[in-house]
């Protein structure tokens, strides 16, 4: 027997919600179950599967013929939610090391770009990472002049 792919499936506990299957085990993440959409007026129904054919996503919420990719993304990990913020901190530390060992401050604008991108993506650590990067750059510039 093959293991189903990660995705939202009907809750095996019997609730009316959908539960996230990570490919190995059920997680604690729940969401309201999606109701199958009714076809538009005058639309042709999707062709039925041939007899005996199995669905790729056995029992997945919203997995009916013609559904398309409508499943929400899996819950993001802490590292994925803060990727640009962490890159900003690493770049600031590299700038600090370059200044300390070689008196180079020319690449000081790189953390500003990554911090701005992190703020646009609304990462939880975007503001602290940007403040840290700005403090490092200001420190390096004040020590340089």
Short description:
The protein is α+β, with helices and mostly antiparallel strands and about 140 residues long.
Molecular structure report:
- With 145 residues, the protein is of the alpha+beta class.
- It has 2 domains: 1-70, no CATH class; 78-144, no CATH class.
- The protein contains 4 helices and 3 strands, in the order βββαααα.
- It has helices at residues 78-81, 83-102, 110-120, 126-144; strands at 7-10, 17-21, 26-32.
- A 3-stranded antiparallel β-sheet has the order 1-2-3, with no helix packed on it.
- α2 (83-102) packs antiparallel against α3 (110-120).
- The protein starts with 6 loop residues before the first strand and ends with a helix.
- Residues 62-68 have low confidence and may be disordered.
- How far the N terminus sits from the C terminus, by CA atoms, comes to 68 Å
Return the structural class: alpha+beta
Number of strands: 3
Q: How are helices and strands ordered from N to C? A: EEEHHHH
Task: Give the helix proportion (percent range).
Answer: 25-40%
* Percent range for β-strand residues: 5-15%
Detail the poorly predicted runs: 62-68
Query: What is the residue-mean pLDDT, rounded to a whole number?
Result: 75
What gyration radius follows from the Cα positions, in whole Å? 24 Å
Number of domains: 2
Overall shape: it is elongated
Number of H/I helices: 4
The strand line-up of the biggest sheet is 1-2-3
């Amino acid at each position: 027997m093959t293991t189903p792919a990660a995705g939202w499936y009907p809750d095996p506990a019997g609730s009316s919600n959908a539960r996230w299957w990570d490919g190995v085990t059920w997680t604690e993440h729940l969401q309201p179950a999606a109701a199958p959409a009714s076809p538009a007026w005058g639309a042709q129904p999707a062709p039925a599967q041939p007899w005996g054919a199995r669905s790729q996503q056995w029992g997945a919420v919203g997995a009916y013929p013609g559904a398309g990719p409508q499943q929400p993304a899996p819950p993001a990990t802490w590292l994925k939610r803060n990727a640009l913020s962490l890159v900003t901190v690493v770049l600031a530390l590299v700038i600090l090391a370059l200044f300390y060992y070689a008196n180079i401050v020319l690449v000081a604008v790189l953390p500003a770009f990554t911090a701005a991108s992190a703020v646009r993506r609304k990462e939880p650590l975007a503001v602290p990472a940007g403040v840290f990067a700005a403090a490092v750059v200001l420190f390096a510039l004040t020590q340089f002049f």
